[in-house]
Every structure is written in structure tokens, then in C-alpha cells.
Amino acid sequence: FGRGLDGTRRAIEHLGYVQIDTLSVVERAHHHVLWARVPGYTHGHLNQLIRERHAFEYWFHAASYLPMRDYRFALPRMNGIRRGETRYFAGIDDRLMREILARVRGEGALRVRDLGADRGSVKGSWWNWGPGKRALDKLFMQGDLMVSERNGMEKVYDLAERILPPGIDSRNPSLHEYAAYLLDGTVRAHGLVTWKQVLHLRPGKPLQDAMREILAERIAAGRLAPVCDMGLPDTYVDAAALDRPTPSARKSVLLLSPFDNLVIHRERLNALFGFDFRLECYVPATRRMFGYFCLPILYGDRFVGRIDCKAHRIEKRFEVVSLHMEDRRAGREVPGPLLQQAIEQLASFNGCDCVSGGCL
């Protein structure tokens, strides 16, 4: 993708989305995913891309950074929430939403914490934090407001008309166009895709029917080929990729985010790489097999293990809680210095200048 800001923009455009996550055991997913791919990536690049109108925040299958060129494909969800066709917060008063919009229009961008400023903090008032936050979220989800920047996890909201670039395509896509967007973007990012992957968290028979139609068109045109493998049902591959020589995998070690685009579709990950990965921070401690926040370890083109880490930022100490290799062979093949280097690089990205852990 290149380096720095341009590399970050190209990475987002290639991947189609980068998931935002609130967990901060190690660096948050949106930064971790891009840092793993783009030399010279810094935390300020995402805000800069929003300011330069190359990216925007909205919902993909989760809260994400998206390429600005794909803005029109966020419109079906925005319009569905506006019309009440898509389930969202109930009981949000339209009068409160109009008041927030008027305040943003007259006073400029605001944060959730600004809702109570100079409005009183009496429980039950219009500007009480709870109702105000829900109204603000709905204005964002229906497209009236957009995020103009983030400071950590705090979002700053402004009118969409002030953030969108001139001449942005705002035509609502047809169901056929939307299905093509989902399929083509997933193929571009992954090369080999599964039916469940392209429709992840997008239910409904109309969309399924449109996706089947698009798949048939792509196969008939020779752009996609079905994979004939009983272990990979409903799987399709970029036909052009089959004609290219397979590059040899670079023998480096990468510690990936649990929310990385490569690993987020767990069934696909297991089917292709034989790597059964689960994030166990949502599992009771007594039922965890590997650790609270394990990161997948990629060595070359194989997933060889997982490492449970925690960044103690105040102490500037990066703790390796546990290390689990997939098997003895992987433990023997992965050079210790490469693994140590990967840990130290991630520690540095987390603002830590020392690494601790009994497994090292």
C-alpha cells in the first residue's frame, strides 16, 4: 500500500472497511489493523483522512472507517433508520433531535459531553446525557451528522453537508448495486470468499437473491470461479488470481488484532488456515483456554499460534501474559528472534519501552 498517509488511504480503500473497537488492552483495532499493513502509520492519519475527505465513519458490519468513494452504499441503512424500517433506539423525541441539529448548525461541531453545557444537568431535562446521547447517535446513524474527528474514542460530530466532499455520489443504490458492492469489495480484499462472509450480519431474502444473481453474473463472465472442495462449500475465488504465480510468503512474524480483516470471519479462517480462533475476553475466566485478549500470530502464510498481551501504558510496560503455539512443529520453526522482534515492535507502537512476561 505504500507508506504513511497515502499508504493508509490505499489500505482502507483496498480492505473496504477497518473496524473500530473500544477495547484497549493493546492498541485499538482500527490503529492495529493499519499499523500491521502500512509502514510509518501514525494515529493521526485517520483524522487527517477524514479532514481531507478520503474516509468517513459509519457502520459496516460494525462501526468502521470506510472509503469516502463508498459513501452511497451507506445510504440504505441511513434511510432505513430515518424511515423507521431499520430497528434502532426507540422513544427518541424528534424535538430533541431538531434542537441538537439546530445547535450544531448554529454553534458548530460538538461532542457528547457538550450536550449538557449551559443547558443544566437536572435529571429528565432535554439535555440529560442519556437521551441526548441517543438522539445524537440516531442523527449520526441516519446521516444528518457525521464524525469530523476522534480524540481517542471521543467523537466530534458535525453536519454531514460540512464533511462530505462536493459532488459526492448520493444516489441510493439499487439492491443489485448493493449486492455487487459487497461481493466485489470482499473479493478485492480477500481473493477467496465464502457466502457467509459476503453476507455477514446482512439478513433478508431479497439481498440473498440479489447476491446469487450477482455471483452467477461474475461466474458467467469468468471473473469468479466456484471452489470445488467439500471442505469449502459456497466458496468463490478471483479467477484472475488463479492465473498469477503464487508469490513466496515473506518469512516474517506479525501479531494481528483479533478484529483484523483477515481473521474476523472465524469460519473462513478455520476452513482455509486450520486456525480455530476465538476472542475469549467475552468468556468467563474459568472457561478460557488461552487468555483474555490473544492476538493471532502469522508467520509467513501460516497461523502458528496466539499470544495474550496487555499494554500497561502508565508504566510503559508491555506484558506477554501467555504464548501458545499451535503445535510442536510451529514452535520449532518460528525463529525466536523474529517473534521477539514482533513483540518489541508492537510494544513500541503501544507506547511501551519494555517487555515483561514469564513465557519469554
Summarize the structure.
The chain has about 350 residues and is α+β, with helices and mostly antiparallel strands. About 35% of the residues lie in helices and about 20% in strands.
Q: What does this protein structure show overall?
A:
It contains 14 helices and 13 strands. With 360 residues, the chain is an alpha+beta fold. The strands form four sheets. It has a five-stranded mixed sheet. Helix 1 packs across helix 3 and helix 8 packs across helix 10 (205-220). 32% of the residues are buried. The model is unreliable at 117-127 (pLDDT under 50).
Provide tags for this entry.
single chain, 14 helices, 360 residues, 5-stranded mixed beta sheet, 3-stranded antiparallel beta sheet, 19% strand, globular
Q: Biggest sheet: strands side by side, in what order?
A: 9-10-11-12-13
Structure class: alpha+beta
H/E element order: HEHHEEHHHEEHHEHHEEHEHEEEHHE
The chain-level mean pLDDT equals 92
Please outline the major beta sheet: 5 strands, mixed
Question: Beta-strand level of the residues, as a percent range?
Answer: 15-25%
Radius of gyration: 22 Å
The span between the termini is 33 Å
Task: Provide a count of the helices.
Answer: 14
The proportion of residues forming helix, as a percent range, comes to 25-40%
